[in-house]
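Hey, can you fold this one?
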Amino acid sequence: MIEETIRRRFVALACVIASGFVVVAIGLGRIVLFEGGRLAGMARRQHNQRLVLREQRGTITDRHGNTMASSTKTPSIFARPARIRAGPALAEELGGRLGLPAHAVENKLRSDRPFVWLKRAVTPRQAEAIAGLKLAGVGIEEEERRYYPHGTLAAHVVGFTGIDLQGLAGAELRFDDVLRGSPVFETVERDALGRAIVSRSELPPRARRGASLELTIDAPLQFVAEQALLEGVRRAGAKGGSVIVLDPATGEILAMGNVPTFDPNSAERAPLDSVRNRAISDMYEPGSTLKPFLVAAALETAQVSSESVIYCEEGRMKVGRRIIHDHHPHGWLSVPEILKVSSNIGVAKIAQKLGARAYHEHLRRFGFGARLGIDLPAEAPGMLAPPDRWSPIRTVNAAFGQGIAVTPLQMAAAFGALANGGCLMRPHVVRRIIAADGHVLWEAKPQSLGCPISAGTAGRITEMLEAVVERGGTAERAAVDGIRVAGKTGTAQKVDSATGRYSTTAVVASFGGYLPSRSARVVIFVVIDEPSRGRFGGVVAAPVFRQIALEAMRRLQVAPATLGDRDPRSVRASDTPAEPRMAVGMPSFIGMSLRRALVSAAEAGWQVKVKGRGYVRTQVPSPGAPASPGRVLVLSLAPPVDVQ
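Sure. Predicted structure:
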């Protein structure tokens, strides 16, 4: 009986075990047949991870090799939530060391994602504080970030990138694909604890590096232009301003600046109003700076000549139901005198004689009403209505720059055409694109946009504009001793958005000119927006022009004529721009490593004092300042700027 019971129990146990094996076999079969592919994929993803390595972004330099944007390594803090016991205490600890709210940190630690960033681009001190905790599941990853060693210098031209090194403005955005280079993929094999044990790159390291940009910008001249503009805006109590310096023969932009400006190292904290590149994106009515182009069109079409005289109605002329005024009453004036005293009535009569269609056509030829194609984003086209919409009063208003919207860039380029024998050149900010191995991938060539007027007409306009800067003209404050300057002032009323009428107080004051006028090396265009002290372009903008012109002539080694020459002419000492380390000005060491700065300073004969560690952040004397070798150079160094 007992044996029978044992036998039955044994059979029952055997059946249970057999059933278990059957269930396991069925499960394994189901897994193999139906779930095998999915589970194998999960295993591969767990033990093998394919990463996209951030390629090294190319540098941006000025025309002399001064670094304007470069890349550096910076620590970032990450977490693997599955390996962390998240709680308020841990979140408070991490948040305190990273400068983050505890609740935000705790939310990240409780994420169901396998990997989260706690904070990117932290300071070395913050990284050390996190490393000291020695927390499992919290680590430090070296990331590449963008560094702009000159801070605000040429910020609107250079632009900036986002946290993932994507270009967001300026040349960084326009040439983002070029600077990024080729992506590199890396396969990482991990052990059971998730630690990397093997990695292999799928492209050679050279492919990681992006190309570099060499800008047309002259950094020391840019510095002087920005400082002169800032001083001019402050002196005038103005809302803002823009300045452009370009080579009329090539279209190269040597300097471009705006007030307000921003530091691209902390662009995310800058007001949007300061990030906008006003020089190419803001449209305004040009006022009297448009008059030379009307006169040029009239000369080109033989509607007037340099000897023509026009009666200016003693300062008051009726057009339909409107009255046109001059600032001062004038009787008979020659065409050159009309430009010299900036007579609205004089140019109004020239516009009536020329006609709306011919005037409109020449304005288009000078580049107004369309984008010029500068190699920067957000260029505005201006506004130029078709001629069949020009009423008689609109034609007259257009003669002195009302009813037409332009950008500072368009005005600078148009003055460049006057300075360049009548030929308009496409403005640009990039000279070369250079591959990681040093060979030139692309080089800018001067590109003509056409010749709106003949060289003879351009020469006659230049003679007239010289008189504007001489005694008795509207721009005496733009004069440069010993060097002829040609230019024109402008004071344009702004439209009051509330009333739709021209404001009686808000104006845009400007001055555009070029020098040496008979063999121009640079065009400088200055715009001061809503000055509250000194309303006229000859008062607030012309002095800014002069300050920049002096530095430009010094850097280009254009010597003034002898003081005894009653008809001064410029003397071109060299056809090439001064190199940054010539005695014509203080070289820039900003952005250099200490080693490179010491070598460069020693070559130039400087005694150096060093403060701090890292890269050169500031220097005394400043870049572009008058200086001579043999004196003391003070370099202040700092680590890459924290962009938290």
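Residues 195-207, 562-584, 640-644 have pLDDT under 50 and may be disordered. Let me know if you want another pass with a different chain boundary.
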